[in-house]
Design goal:
By secondary structure, the protein is an alpha+beta fold. Helices cover 25% and strands 34% of the residues. The protein has 4 helices and 7 strands, in the order αβββββββααα. The protein binds nickel (II) ion. The site of nickel (II) ion has 5 residues, from α2.
């Protein structure tokens, strides 16, 4: 395993749409292992592949000591609303409030290509929604209720 460089806001790759994973091979497993190590090394709750410069639909999350790899994930159910402050390893120190669903169910496949689904509430739901946004080039600073504050502090979009 190795840590990879986390790209920061301003890098155009963060704004691109990631492609589906089709090959469940050693390159994918290496990437997943590196993403896990990179997330922990940066004290993150989640990391999406475009944040390490790979435009593939892959995320890792760790909420409440539960580590999960999601490949080709899709949110298939959501309910409720929840507002909390969130941050992002690609943005820096700014934290801003974002409205997210309170509860979600996500369908995905694992590193071997086997399908599964996962239901999460509160922070797990939030973290998954945040990471899935990365796969479509969306950052929390696009959605934050505190965008004015972010821009006033000189934040980039
Ligand atoms: Ni992020």
């Amino acid at each position: 395993m190795a840590t990879r460089k986390v790209v920061k806001v301003g890098d155009q790759n963060l704004r691109k749409k990631s492609k589906e994973v089709k090959n469940f091979d050693e390159d994918l497993w290496q990437l997943l292992d590196d993403m896990k190590e990179t997330m922990y090394a940066n004290d993150g709750m989640g990391l999406a592949a475009p944040q390490v410069g790979v435009l593939r639909r892959i995320v890792v999350v760790d909420v409440n000591n539960m580590f999960v790899e999601l490949i080709n994930p899709q949110i298939v159910y959501q309910e409720g609303k929840d507002i909390e402050k969130e941050g992002c390893l690609s943005v820096g120190s700014f934290k801003g409030r974002v409205e997210r669903p309170y509860k979600i169910t996500v369908k995905a496949v694992d590193r071997y290509g086997y399908p599964f689904s996962l239901t999460g509430e509160k922070w797990l739901a939030r973290c998954i929604c945040h990471e899935l946004d990365h796969l479509d080039g969306i950052l929390f600073i696009d959605k934050t209720l505190d965008k004015k504050e972010y821009l006033e502090k000189g934040g980039r979009i």
